[in-house]
TrEMBL record:
Protein name: Beta-ketoacyl synthase domain-containing protein
Organism: Idiomarina xiamenensis 10-D-4
UniProt xrefs under InterPro entries: Ketoacyl_synth_N
Residue span(s) of domain Beta-ketoacyl synthase-like N-terminal: 23-227
Length: 234
């Protein structure tokens, strides 16, 4: 799989102010956003600020808006009445609906959740969109937050809240400055365990920024490798 990266944005918890969302989303609406939604929309806004069309959007996430979901589960356990609004906003694609409203983007939007390999499968979904519609621009965003202590024995990743977005295009519309990446998938019989999500996103950011070393992640008996095509040819 090959695609072109026009722009990236990496948001890490405590990493600084959310400048894009603060200027593009009214304060009254920002206050109703969860932490998960804020960092996801911030990353998307940072990679779409120079676009003149409405891009398709793919959200990859393992846990979704977990903090909102756990509050609903605690309300159920306490026999409290659930808030219809909070319930609607807890589903994975709710944040994409909010992004759509803020940006008046009526293009196709989808979510992918594939355990520790959610990011890799998000790239696969974005690639398939570009294969079907090579003149489209696709925004891919990966977002996840740490689980609470009671769930840490199920999954310890991510250790910090992280969101990373990519503006992706095919060869048909890529600019001269876009970075061409290749993503390869192979079976790996001994690949088990979890993936350090923050380290993975930081490595992918470095790859786009000029690092020539391929980035590999393994889980669920699968190996996924991102590499720069220009580095391979050199």
């Amino acid at each position: 799989m090959e695609f072109f990266v026009e722009k990236t944005a990496l948001i890490v918890a405590g990493g600084g102010p959310n400048s894009a969302i603060n200027t593009q989303v009214p304060a009254g609406q920002r206050r109703r956003l969860s932490g998960f939604a804020k960092m996801t929309i911030e990353a998307l806004l940072q990679v779409s600020d120079e676009l003149h069309d409405s891009p398709d959007v793919v959200l990859a996430t393992q846990h979704g808006d977990f903090q909102r979901t756990i509050r609903l589960l605690r309300d159920v356990a306490a026999s409290h009445e659930l808030s219809p609004t909070q319930f609607c906003l807890s589903v994975n694609n709710a944040v994409l609906g909010q992004f759509s409203l803020f940006t008046d983007n009526r293009a196709s939007m989808s979510t992918v959740s594939a355990g520790p390999l959610s990011l890799a499968y998000g790239f696969l979904e974005a690639y398939l969109v570009l294969q079907q519609q090579p003149h489209k621009t696709v925004l891919l965003v990966y977002s996840d937050e740490p689980l609470i202590d009671e769930y840490q024995h199920f999954c310890q990743q991510p250790q910090q809240a992280v969101s990373m977005a990519w503006c992706l295009r095919s060869a048909a519309t890529a600019s001269a400055t876009a970075v061409k990446l290749k993503l390869q998938h192979q079976p790996e019989a001994h690949a088990e365990g979890d993936i350090d999500r923050l380290a993975l996103t930081e490595q992918l950011q470095a790859l786009v920024s000029g690092c020539s070393a391929p980035v590999t992640t393994m889980a669920n008996r699968q190996r996924w490798t991102w590499s720069r095509v220009d580095a391979q040819a050199a």
